[in-house]
Amino acid sequence: MGLIKIVILILSFTFLCQGQRLTATYSAARLPYAMDRTAAYYDGVDSIYLFGGRANSYEVRSISVYSISQDTIKMVGSISSTYLFESCVESATNGNLYYFGNVASSYSVTNNAMFDISRNTTEAIAALPFYPADCGALKLNHTSNIVYIFKDSPLRTFDLETMVLTEVATLTHYPTISTKIGNSAIFFSGVSGPALARVTKLNLDTMEMETRNTGLHTLSYARVASDLVRYVYIIGGYVPAADRPTQTIIQWDTQLHQHVYIPVDNYPFSYSEESWQYSPASVYVEKLNRIYYFGGRYRQRVGGGTMPLSAIWHVNLSDIDPPASTTIPTEYPSTTEEEPETEITTESAITTSTTVITTTTTPNPEIITCQNKTDGMYPHPYDCAMFIGCHNGELEIFTCPVPLLFDPVASTCMPPHLVDCNISCVGKPDGVYPHGQDCSLFITCVSEILEVYRCPPPLLFDPILLVCNYPEFVDCV
Ligand SMILES: *[C@@H]1O[C@H](CO)[C@@H](O)[C@H](O)[C@H]1NC(C)=O
Ligand SMILES: *[C@@H]1O[C@H](CO)[C@@H](O)[C@H](O)[C@H]1NC(C)=O
Ligand SMILES: *[C@@H]1O[C@H](CO)[C@@H](O)[C@H](O)[C@H]1NC(C)=O
Ligand SMILES: *[C@@H]1O[C@H](CO)[C@@H](O)[C@H](O)[C@H]1NC(C)=O
Ligand SMILES: *[C@@H]1O[C@H](CO)[C@@H](O)[C@H](O)[C@H]1NC(C)=O
């Protein structure tokens, strides 16, 4: 890899860290009602269908279609019952839409409905033995009639030709929001206790499953859309806090397994303490690289009430996306492939492999390695109180006695005032910083979230130019 290329990559990375910002652009059209929990379906061309929803004191029974090119919305049908809560919609190969939700007049009866687009009619077609509120519906491809319904465990498929429901896998973590990247479903789920969200990647071809911690708090009534290739965009689902800024969209990177809160200008509500109670339906429109958002309900800071919205708005992901040709992680940093501990578990009728990542702070653990290192003590990339021992390529992690910190020059634990340690993003603007303890490493800070990367060997981080550079140009002690 040439120096120029590396410099360009790092400069573009620096730019991204500092320039990550989206803007909400509002449509002239508005939803027929201020409402939340509407189920959205994009036909891949120009139409986004919106099924049901919940207005302030009544359920919305209409089916509306939003035209992206014309920026208009019109009602095209209705579902002939009440109690329409957020559910999910998928299409059959004949173009009809199937709504998985409660279409009967009681909470206890669950049904699903078919909307015949050509005839503008709706009929209830089958009862489901579960309540699919807040489900996600996904198909492997457009030529398939098999719909995966992400709701709880077991994971089920519904065949739109035969109307047969099949249990296909046992899920350890129940999906709360789901989307698709390539041939895989990506779903997020909460855990009890100190609630952290987990993310599972389920390959719909092979049914292989991989679950890991996200480092995000449990996402309640969040909504999600993916760019179909790499990034998942989550809106809402969290109560604002110092490390969880509101008026943001969370970008989850399915390759590096890390998240960033991206600030959004012109957000639908203004007070920073306000948050979504039910996030707006999210739809990714590939040809424009936009995510469209419909309605939702936010919790007001003053008085604690909630407010449904009728707004239709979008963000342009080109404002933040790196062009595909300079996608950072595939080229840079070169050490981000994970080799997680894998435990194989047999679930349901199929065999799946479940991967549990226990550490959430080191998405690129390869930087903690004894590879290419002579025997000795080395600084720990993330923590000055820890250090790494390498012996015959074998790695062992040690912790200095409190309050001592590891001094890489003396190669031993020393009192803190004698150690130059600044592996932290607290109070630092977004950007790239020297690691301080190890010249081959550098730090990135995004919204005060720290990440550590290693320069591609033999390069070292140049603390003046803030790029990886040839060792002879870098003043490193
Ligand atoms: C579809 O039917 C609804 C009533 O259910 C009506 O309001 C709407 O205009 C119809 N749309 C079309 C395209 O015929
Ligand atoms: C589409 O998905 C079905 C399973 O639902 C699969 O059998 C078929 O091979 C897939 N087709 C393509 C072109 O990937
Ligand atoms: C999205 O933003 C990019 C620049 O950030 C601009 O070139 C492009 O035209 C925008 N796309 C749309 C569909 O507005
Ligand atoms: C070790 O050295 C080899 C050859 O120079 C290189 O390809 C590899 O990336 C290095 N590994 C690490 C972890 O630095
Ligand atoms: C850490 O670095 C930042 C900016 O580079 C600086 O402002 C801060 O004083 C440093 N802290 C320590 C403890 O050295």
3D structure, described in words:
A six-stranded mixed β-sheet has the order 15-16-17-18-30-29, with no helix packed on it. By secondary structure, it is mainly β. It has two domains: about 20-320, Neuraminidase; about 360-475, no CATH class. Helix content is about 5%, strand content about 45%. Bound molecules: 2-acetamido-2-deoxy-beta-D-glucopyranose (5 copies).
Which SSEs are present, and which pair or pack?
Blueprint (H helix, E strand, L loop, with lengths): L2 H17 L2 E2 L1 E6 L8 E4 L4 E8 L4 E9 L4 E7 L9 E4 L5 E5 L9 E6 L4 E7 L8 E4 L6 E5 L4 E5 L5 E5 L7 E5 L2 E6 L6 E8 L5 E9 L5 E4 L4 E5 L12 E6 L4 E8 L9 E4 L2 E5 L4 E5 L2 E3 L6 E3 L2 E6 L11 H4 L10 E6 L2 E8 L18 E4 L6 E6 L2 E6 L5 E3 L4 E3 L16 E4 L6 E6 L2 E6 L5 E3 L4 E3 L8
The structure holds 2-acetamido-2-deoxy-beta-D-glucopyranose (5 copies).
The site of one 2-acetamido-2-deoxy-beta-D-glucopyranose (NAG) has 4 residues, from loops.
As laid out across the biggest beta sheet, the strand order is 15-16-17-18-30-29
Ligand set: 2-acetamido-2-deoxy-beta-D-glucopyranose
Please indicate the percent range of residues in DSSP E strands (runs of 2 or more). Answer: 35-45%
How many alpha or pi helices?
2
**Mass-distribution shape:** elongated
Unreliable stretches (pLDDT < 50, length at least 5) are 1-18, 323-363
CATH topology of the largest domain: Neuraminidase
The assembly state of the depicted protein chains is single chain
Keywords: Chitin-binding, Disulfide bond, Glycoprotein, Repeat, Signal
GO molecular function: chitin binding
InterPro entries: Chitin-bd_dom (IPR002557), Chitin-bd_dom_sf (IPR036508), Chitin_bind-dev_reg (IPR051940), Kelch-typ_b-propeller (IPR015915)
Pfam families: CBM_14 (PF01607)
